[in-house]
Amino acid sequence: MGYETFTCDIDADGVALVTIDLPGQSMNVWNAALMRDYRQFVDRLNTDDAIKGAVITSGKASGFLAGADLKLISTRKAETMREAFESSFVLSDDLRRMETGGHDAKRLARGAAAAKPVACVVNGLALGGGLELVLACHYRSAVDDPRVQLGLPEVTIGLLPGGGGTQRLLRLIGVEKALKMVLAGTPVDPHTAKAYGFIDEVVPADQAMGAALAWVKANPRVVQPWDRADFIVPGVSSARDPQFAQLFANANALAEVQSGHNYDAVPAILSCFYEGTLVPIDTALRIESKYFTKLLTGAQSRNMIRTLFVNKQAADKGAQRPREIAPVELRKVGIVGAGLMGCGIAHVAAKGKLNVVVLDKDRQTASKASAYTKRIVEKAVQRGAMSADAASALLARIVTTDRYEDFADADLVIEAVFEQPGIKADVLRNIEAVVGEQVVIASNTSTLPIAGLARHLRRPERFIGMHFFSPVERMQLLEIIPGEATGRAALAAAYDFNARIRKTPILVKDVRGFYTNQVVPPYLNEAVLMLMEGVDPALIDNVAIALGMPIGPLALLDETTLSLAHDIQRSTREQLGEAYQPAGTEAFFEKMVVELDRKGRRFGGGIYEYSADGTKTVWRGLIEHYPRAGVPLSPEQVEQRLLYIQLTAAARCLEAGIVVDPQSADLGAIFGWGFPTWTGGPMSHIDTLGLAEFVVEADRLAQRYGARFKPPASLRDKAGEGLSLYAPV
Amino acid sequence: MLEAYIYDALRTPRGRGKSDGRLHEITPVQLAAQALAAVPVRNGIEPGVIDDVVFGCVSAVGEQGSVIPRIAALTAGFPQSVAGVQVNRFCGSGLEAVNIAAGKIASGEADLVVAGGVESMSRVPMGSDGGAWPMDPQTAFKTYFIPQGVSADLIASKFGYSREDVDRYAQESHRRAGYAWSQGRFARAIVPVRDVIGEVVLDHDEHVRPETTMATLGGLKPSFQALGERSPGYDTIALLKHPDVQRVEHVHHAGNSSGIVDGAAAVLIGNAQIGRELGLKPRARIRAMAAVGSEPTIMLTGPELAVQKVLKRAGMSVADIDLWEVNEAFAAVVLRFMDAMSVGHERTNVNGGAIAMGHPLGASGAILVGTLVDELERADKQLGVATICIGAGMGVATIVERIG
User: Fold this and answer.
1) For residues A20 and A34, is the Cβ–Cβ distance under 8 A?
2) Do the domain assignments include residue A663?
3) Does B145 contact chain A (CB < 8 Å)?
4) What tens digit of pLDDT does each residue of A79-109 get?
């Protein structure tokens, strides 16, 4: 039969063997062509008596079917809700017709009709719409291979499984288990899927097809469990059942506790489960599709797909890597400094299968790098995330030393020593003395300009900044900062190193603070300014959490220590002299650190006091020095300042070319300091607010609170021309 | 608009709301029927002169379904001409019933109405009627739902009431209730409950513990701590709605929260004319009524808003009011009310309250009105206000003025 996206061979018994293999695509996805072919196939299956059943599998090693074509989704033209629903429901409807044979649900329940058997052999990744195809089959087998992963990850991009995923999964494995899976979005392996109950059999690869065919032949007439008259959703009897009420009350609360109130997809998913359980499946499928439509036509999924999927992928693949330079062969990496950062960098490098040499002033100090990685891999082995073999192999790749000579055969050396120009200068010279001419030398500095450090090298063109974030093994962002002398080859090597350690890199201009440290300090500063004005510190931090920040700004200051903030402020003032712009918070840090000895969490407390059981309360002495203001700020006003200070500072970085494009600004914000992912990033959020609206509000805040809120001129111009930061779709 | 007069107020004693409570053997219909039957007997009237029965009943399902006041009226032997209607405004149902009845009189719809309520919490537990509010994700998210116990703790945290503050209030409630009972202050109102063979099964509020001390209260574990902090962690949701609160301190427990009990109450309300015709002496008039909505997450701060509204409508001020009956859902609710309205404990819940005696959900509002009428007479005072905090953030208030 003539299909573009799959082959369809009918065997002697009339069973159609469907092998999905999108031509010219690396992955099978539900693109327009596949949906078209699938619809035709289902029509044929339901009307052609010569076809007795089907077995569906994939012809691609990259996976079974990886879900919707996200590029298609992210470039959709705006439509009405009705139009969006109609087009979204098509696939759900076709899947339903495959499982019912086109028969009415009542006839199936009465036993007056049945469908033809459709089995699937899941021989690779089945995610999102791919798993939804599996769930609509009557017999679901998976190949016994750890590369086979089955999941419904739509929540991670602000959507929900709109092709019957919520409804079939809950009817197969029960509301509670299904809800957990869909809200988390994490895939499972075939054996777990079988244990849950949505895969019937896990079969060795060479037996899978045979088993599926045998099943089809043995079951010529089939009805899905939920189309049988006696079907009850596992564990649920009715809305009046107190257990049902308890289950959902609990599920709602847990979801709110875990993801706050910011993600539209979360209550939408919960509602698909709640409402879908109470009605017959055909109605439930429409309800699911309607909640899906609401998400699809909303800003969140658009922003999350663009930033977290499309743009992150492009960045991870090295979108800004110099194209003309051949990939750099990296086998061995040297690291100077076994502090927190050095140890973290060593870990991720070893994880990326690089040999690592870590140097510090003496062997004992250097050995901290091995201890650091040992702790991490031991925990991983304990929770079953890593085999003991893999753990020892990783650890074995890290070698520690006190001799620069051990860098002689390194392909790349990174220094991660104290933020002191003198120390760094010595280290850089020592490195250059032993490594080859082509070897790239990088610095993890967070405050010193790259151009300045480069001057200590004979060959500054080999030098580049690579700014990691702490803890390195968990923070996804890498700022790559070429100095004015940095050559293309060094830049390419930085990207090639990143490809091994799999961070998300953004290219950043060589200015003080680079990108993240241009935005985070003003944000923390704003929080302190409000505290000084008499806003309750608990209110400031709670509002930040409600907004979606991972930690409140005042709590963060305590974690990174007020004394560090104080030091940085002081040294910046010294270095810039006349050019220093007062932040308005100098008196606060001076008072807290010097006068009151409130230096931070690990120094016995800062803005908060910390009890043994981990809970914190605002330091009781604070109110004496910073009493409550007469007219309190509302939570909305606090939120506006915390949000807009970040938006404005990030926008200024874009205007000044510190980051090259809005996507870098967004990725840097989300992965560098935890800017709320539901926004898609600060630039996406400005576009969502509307550039004109943003400018008006920023001006209002600037007038009220100060020039730090003034929107950059280029944004004002763009707003005037009716443009947006991102190019329109 | 006609005046609505209170001619009589009575109640059953409150039995402990468990299967070993003394009223557990009495069906909810019986409980209601006995309260109703007492009305014509005590007042020397034929039940047929009653137009309607308006009863609060919250968990109006199962035994408490099918418009229980109508069925109870028929069971009590009232003629078929006496209609009945069940009202649900959560904990405020009994007071709402009184207000609805007063409205029927004032509008001229009816001449004589029995308002009141019934709730057998031992036989039809709280929550039996279900409801979408916490379980439908759309409603739970929209309203930032948290259970009422966490709301009470949130009030304590937001307005600064310590464990000691709430326990002290609870102790006083028990002391006052015990004292009031010993002084016979409830004697006029109480209608003992009888069993199938006519024997009295209960003649006093079973829940009261006059021997309650700070020590006994101090030993009780906070009831809503796990719910709030861990499973599922409602405190986090509370702070999303109330970011000005640093942490929810869990201070409420069984000893400083309203008791779960069985009970019924009735209040006879009519116009002046019917009183004269039947030879009834009015004891009080209903001066003003109000209902409001308030913040649903903190849930229980409605009384101050309802009282502000009812005073405004009556053209009165706090200073005019001699006695306050503020339902003791949780100790912090009353503490907050007294602070918000600058009203002292010496005028508030002077004979104890639901912490000591229990809160039969549908009946409590009517019990508060009856308590006010009795105490205004006993203490020779003029004006009282009954008010109740209510689920989903509401408040109801009624101004009662003694006559004679």
Assistant:
1) yes
2) no
3) yes
4) 899 999 999 999 999 999 999 999 999 999 9
Q: For residue range A343-354, list pLDDT tens digits in order.
A: 999 999 999 999
Q: Test B137 with A618 for CB contact under 8 angstroms.
A: no
**Catalytic: which of A99, A132, A288, A479?**
A132
Q: Spell out the residues 6+ positions from residue A525 whose beta carbon is closer than 8 angstroms to its own.
A: A583, A584, A585, A645
Assess if residue A245 is contained within a domain: yes
Residue A401, pLDDT above cutoff 70? yes
Asked whether the predicted pLDDT for residue B404 surpasses 80, the reply is: no
Cα nearest neighbour of A545 on chain B: B240
Give A6-45 pLDDT, tens digit per residue.
999 999 999 999 999 999 999 999 999 999 999 999 999 9
Instruction: Report the predicted TM-score, pTM, of the whole model to 2 decimal places.
Output: 0.94
Contact of B247 with B153, CB cutoff 8 Å = no
Q: Are strands B261-270 and B5-11 parallel, antiparallel or unpaired?
A: antiparallel
- Same domain? A40 vs A179: yes
Cα three-residue angle A482-A485-A487, rounded to 5 degrees:
70
User: Chain-wide mean pLDDT for chain B?
Assistant: 98
Q: Both ends of chain A: CA-CA distance in Å?
A: 36
Domain count of chain A?
A: 2
Q: What three-state secondary structure class fits B154?
A: helix
How many angstroms separate the CA atoms of A450 and A214, rounded?
Answer: 66
Which chain A residues have a beta carbon less than 8 Å from that of B140?
248-249, 252-253, 256
> Given the DSSP bridges, would you call strands A477-482 and A463-467 parallel, antiparallel or unpaired?
antiparallel
Domain co-membership, A287 together with A349:
no
Which residue among A242, A252, A543 places its CB closest to the CB of B141?
Answer: A252
- The residue out of A297, A321, A354 marking a domain boundary is A297
A729 confidence band (pLDDT: 50, 70, 90): low
Query: Does the pLDDT value for residue A67 go beyond 70?
Result: yes
* Residue A283 sits in the same domain as residue A204: yes
What pLDDT, in 10s, does the model give residues B74-101?
999 999 999 999 999 999 999 999 999 9
Residue A31: give the domain boundaries: 6-297
Neighbouring C-beta atoms of residue B276, cutoff 10 Å: 11
How open is the CA angle A180-A182-A184, to the nearest 5 degrees? Answer: 65
Q: Enter the ipTM.
A: 0.95
Kindly state the tokens that stand for A564: 């560090």
Q: Are A236 and A98 in the same domain?
A: yes
